[in-house]
Amino acid sequence: MADLDQLMGELNPAQLKAVQHPPHIPLQILAGPGSGKTKVLTMRIAYLTTYCHLPPWSICAVTFTNKAANEMRDRLFKLLGKDRTAQIKMGTFHALCAMFLRRFAKFVGLDGNFTVCDADESKKIITKLLKQYKDELVEKNVTLTENGALGFISKVKAKGWTADDARRHVEETNALPAQKRKSRNMGKFDPWEGELGRILATIYKDYEKSLREANSLDFDDLLMFGVKLFKSHAKASKWCRHVLVDEFQDTNTMQYELMVYIARACQCVTIVGDPDQSIYGWRSAEIENLAKMQNDFPTTQQLYLEQNYRSTGSILALSMAIVSQDKGRIQKTLHASHPQGHPPVLRVFPIEHVEAAFIAAEIKRLVAYSGGMLNWGDFVVLLRFNSHSRGIESALQKEGIPNRVLAGHKFFERMEVKDLLAYLQLVDNPHFVPAFLRVVNVPSRTVGEKTVSEITTRAQQLKISPLQVVERIVDGKIPDIKPPVKKKLASFVHTIRILRKYANDGVAPSKLINALVDSIHYKEHLAKTQPDADSRWDNVQELINFASEVEQSGPEEVVRRMFEADEALHEKDAEGTDGEESQEEWEDDLNDFDGDQSRGIAPGDTPLRLFLQASMLSTDTETGEEEKSKEKVTIATCHAAKGLEWPVVIIPAVQSGVFPSSRAEDVEEERRLLYVACTRAKGLLYLTHTTSRMMAGEFVPAYISEFISALHHDKKTKELFTETLPPLPPQDRKIIATVIGRPLPADEEVARRVSEYEKTSRHPAWGEHAPFLNPAMGDCGPEWQRQQFPSAPY
Ligand code: ATP
Ligand code: MG
């Protein structure tokens, strides 16, 4: 185990002060990127459990992504050991709510066996409702898309509005004279008024009804019911003696409320954040929460960290110049700990293809010229939009560079993964209609839309679920429908029943998936229907791997430990609290609160259910792909890159309409997004853009991003960039080695790799004004580019 004292000795005085801040005085640590906020938060957890004797199970740590929770957990493993770390309640707000709600479901009128339903499944429900209200929509001349309806509903749920609240708001607003309505909305479009508002409120109500009938919660529900639980049952917060929140600047109203309620009993809160990195305003994040916290916890103190440990001086200087253009922001100090390094590279290309080809070639060159110190896994390409990833992916593939898209086409959104999960959801929860609709005809059982609608109608009449209708038909308990399904669906029912039996017997989810794919001949189904059946089958294997991982160290174990801390530890911790509160008192409280379920995992927590929950709350990176990702170039959106860091960051399409996005409402938020992207870089940063881009099949002119042009045209800030690619002479290599904390490769190794590279790679003199002939690399200037991309407008 790592030595906490020694690690604390490596902190700077401000960081140490933050770690050792008295637990009962609420604390805001406000600081720029790379200043060690997440590090301090992690060390503070270790400090609180080790020196302030807080039992690990009484600590509630909130991260912005599941990936961040895993990283934090990994670090704490080393400091506290596996047992103690596993007891800490750690995860995103959503994951924590799911965890508490499973256990305390009945206190908010839910059934603990709920299924977490993802965006796709929500969309299916909304599609059905929009169909149902089609005539009314036409009659009232209201246009409403599925995404529109879902988005509007999600936005009000993030504010904590129930369907009844929404209805009330609509009626109140509609009762106002037009002029007053306008000023109430400050001239902005409000979907929750007029006929649109009325119909939205109805759809919202029906949507909630469908979810409850299917015994499922969508992502917003997790927070809404979480708040309800902590608000109405003060004792739930007894589980918690210190709340810590990372990336606080991006919490929304509901999440903030949740934090306040969780901390209601203990009043001990530590948050870290950076207003300059607030990039989720579009998802209802409220930067005002910082001020609110000072009201709700009047003794709150603030601490600042001013030393950046992540980036070279020149990367930090450019990043600060970008964000400082926002005149409304509060200036902050951030000193670089590292030397200047090679200045950020700014390059322009004629078209996106050339830009992407450059990126791939440059990554290859850097790996060679760094003597192998940089590997594929050290590079990230950060995009404003997910949809831009295709060009980059194919350019990397062309060069034979392994790559992965982070939080792009998510693992759990892939067809084959969703099919299998839907089967398991149905096994777990026969009322979960979206899963039934997804798989009743997968693989094809010649059950058409009409038949499915007959089944659902029958289900509504009998007040049972569609799956139960099919089961009863197959059992001959109710008459068959038309067209008949008994024969067609007998094997479907058989599969579900076998799996249900296995699941009830506690068979591990990985084994269930194996049994499932055998039973429905899924591999054959993929081969018959999918051109890329092999890679899809790989994903099925990956899902099985993920299930095994969850089984070994996953939520079941974690939840069990969190709520049933090891007896001995429990007692020791209770002694350690210095009579502040005895073990018995705690036990009493819990008994009061939770009746006969006070200890152990809730009866609803079967391995299957916990596996499904882990899948629903996971993102791409938490599958076994994570290990392999170390050898791959990452492609990610700037939003997904929050909180993370890479030795080399490349940001393409730094141009108008992209940075800022032409669809963005808040330009300053877009500027901060570019700032977040740049500050992910440790050693090298590249910004590229093009003079034209493809839009709907046509080339149109493109212009450099206004965030950059302003700096580039100013003599004072122009020098923050260079066009020169880093030659990586020994001095440069040394700086990169220090910044990324790697040993410097021997000169001979560098020479060997460079010569190998030069033998195999002939690359163009990149850029719009590249010379026609580059003696070192051959004639690969505009002429070469023209040949490669004949349709581009040179
Ligand atoms: P962001 O705002 O981007 O989330 P952050 O403030 O959370 O950044 P961290 O990720 O905690 O910053 O730290 C950035 C990097 O600096 C990490 O690699 C971390 O290990 C390192 N670091 C932080 N403090 C120190 C220190 N005192 N000595 C050496 N390295 C440090
Ligand atoms: Mg951080």
TrEMBL record:
Gene Ontology annotations for the cellular component aspect, listed alphabetically: nucleus
Domain UvrD-like helicase C-terminal: from-to ranges: 313-643
Molecular functions per Gene Ontology: 3'-5' DNA helicase activity; ATP binding; DNA binding; hydrolase activity
Start and end residues of each stretch annotated as Disordered: 568-604
Catalysed conversion reaction: Couples ATP hydrolysis with the unwinding of duplex DNA by translocating in the 3'-5' direction; ATP + H2O = ADP + phosphate + H(+)
This enzyme's EC code(s): 5.6.2.4
Domain UvrD-like helicase ATP-binding positions: 10-312
Keyword field: ATP-binding, DNA-binding, Helicase, Hydrolase, Isomerase, Nucleotide-binding
Acidic residues bias spans: 576-595
Lineage top rank: taxon: Eukaryota
Binding site for ATP: A31, G32, P33, G34, S35, G36, K37, T38
A Gene Ontology biological process term: recombinational repair
Family from the record: Belongs to the helicase family. UvrD subfamily.
Protein name: DNA 3'-5' helicase
Source organism per UniProt: Trametes coccinea (strain BRFM310)
Lineage, highest ranks first: Eukaryota, Fungi, Dikarya, Basidiomycota, Agaricomycotina
First and last residues shown, out of full length: 1 to 794 of 1055
